[in-house]
Amino acid sequence: MAAYPLIDKWLAGVDPAGPGGGFDKDIVPYLIAIWLDDYAQDFDASNIVETSSSEFSYLFDITAERLLAAWGVSRGRHGGARDASRMRGHPLSAGAHYHRGHAIPHTLGGPTDINLVPQAAKVNVGAFRPLERRAVASPGSFYFSYWSYRGAAPARAGGPGQTPTGVDQGLLIPGQKADIRRHGN
Asked: What is the pTM of this model?
């Protein structure tokens, strides 16, 4: 998994009045560099794209067709309904012990499609919830998830698998130490 040795240093300099809640200047470039370096240790990172949806940003590996990271600033509780028909249409090939987990929680406004990953059920409805709830309760905070595929089983077509082996989940609140948690998947 990735290491974040300077995250508290960069977090201490965040100006909440700045672009992207103050996170765009130093935090986002720092995190993207860490994630890309970590991913490139095991996989070709040449086809990684950054895109956005519903005010959140994503790193996606086009070749392997998998999500690497998702991030954005909390605007508090999102009250919109889940798009259940879109979620039902999303592949669920990782097995019975996996959910279509949200990289950015629905309660923060996370959409479906690119935002859904095969996530261990026990993590999705267990260990992931406390930080998600804290992000919802902390408008202006920065929430992220970085999905690791180190040691992932190959996909049936011979390419790398799409089921993550772990995830770093983080919440950055100006004036506080970073809260980054690692979960197996």
From this structure: 0.89
Q: Which distant-in-sequence residues (6+ apart) come within 8 Å of 102 by Cβ?
A: 110, 115, 116
pLDDT tens digits for range 112-167: 788 989 888 899 889 999 999 999 999 999 999 999 998 876 665 555 678 899 99
**Segment 98-123, tens digit of pLDDT:** 888 889 998 898 887 889 898 888 99
| Residue with tokens 């998994």, as numbered in its chain | 1
CA distance 100 to 119: 6
Contact by Cβ (8 Å): 110, 104: yes
Select the CATH number that applies to the domain covering 7-184 from these four: 3.40.570.10, 3.40.50.150, 3.30.470.20, 3.40.50.1100.
3.40.570.10
| Residues in the chain, overall count | 185
Cβ atoms of 180 and 170 closer than 8 Å: yes
Tokens representing 6 are: 């300077």
β-strand partners of 144: 71, 170
